[in-house]
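Please predict the structure of the following assembly.
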Amino acid sequence: MRVLVPFEATAPKTRLGGVLDGDERAAFARAALRDVCSAVEAAGHVPEVVATESVAVDATVTVDERPLSPAINDRLGGERTGVVAADLALVTPTAVECLVDAAADADVAIAPGRGGGTNALVVSHPDFRVDFHGVSYRDHRRIAREVGASVAVVDSMRLATDVDVPADLAEVLLHGDGEAAVWLSEAGFELDAGDGRVGVSHPTADDTE
Amino acid sequence: MRVLVPFEATAPKTRLGGVLDGDERAAFARAALRDVCSAVEAAGHVPEVVATESVAVDATVTVDERPLSPAINDRLGGERTGVVAADLALVTPTAVECLVDAAADADVAIAPGRGGGTNALVVSHPDFRVDFHGVSYRDHRRIAREVGASVAVVDSMRLATDVDVPADLAEVLLHGDGEAAVWLSEAGFELDAGDGRVGVSHPTADDTE
């Protein structure tokens, strides 16, 4: 199956600005993108990166400067197609299989992200379209209802964990084993076990060079 | 299988203090506890609440005033035993089955919580003990290694989502369908779709009465 991997190549992961500078965010985002493409491929599918500008990754890359939703929708409507966010740094081949398995019995499989987002989909229904703005998990369920598409929801922590904000980096250090996790460790990030949920700490800015 | 459900009955969910007062936190925590017990039972297992003081729930309740880890460890070491946190307001019978299935091939099954916690376990190894302090997911993997117990990690967003902080309430409104979700709705909480991840809003304090 073709799996679209949309990638904001121009200014990725701006909400990590408090802990990573622009170059670091670009490097980290590309490491996560490569992890996602590897997992998709290891699960037996064909990743196709849809990026806002050219990016070096071992997969087909199509440059599309439009916003996310129209860029994806332009590629839906034909054969069954997957969509997996490029910032799912915890994704594994098993998690991708779990998503695809869920799509066997439904017109649309949705993996919700934390906070009402949609982190991955498999779309088999010809009339289903995406809308990633707002509470997209809820919107995608509504859109499916409107076009008469059945929905399966995938219960996966790995698919639910997109890396948007600094707290998410702790999840990568805890559960990731790909390039993104290695990049973070080599950049000096460590788990910071305070009270309650763990965060990340970074020794000094100089250590990231 | 016996499934322990530890419950802090005395002052539950203090980190929700910014949005819920003490009585509200007690009511919400008890609704989530009942959801957890119902899901465990619907999955064919026997919930046993281990609470710091007596609590009204349709399950066996044992009062144990000790801290969480010794209270649980005192009940491990015999037959295979589950442990499911009382604040997993998204848990479903399917998610409980997923946890128990993972334990079929391993001495210890662990469902990690967001931020390095441990939200659920099934323990079959006689020497494994819990330690919920700190980054317990990492500690439980280490403890398993030390006693020679094999580990399976359960990939479930529903089991990973404990309700600790206000942002977690959005997950309950989005994905919950039990008493805790109903309680939140009736208390006036609504999804608040700003930019990025969704939060919750609450009309006015008076509306919760």
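Confidence is low (pLDDT under 50) at residues 205-209 of chain B. The domain at 2-162 of chain B is CATH 3.90.550.10 (Spore Coat Polysaccharide Biosynthesis Protein SpsA; Chain A).
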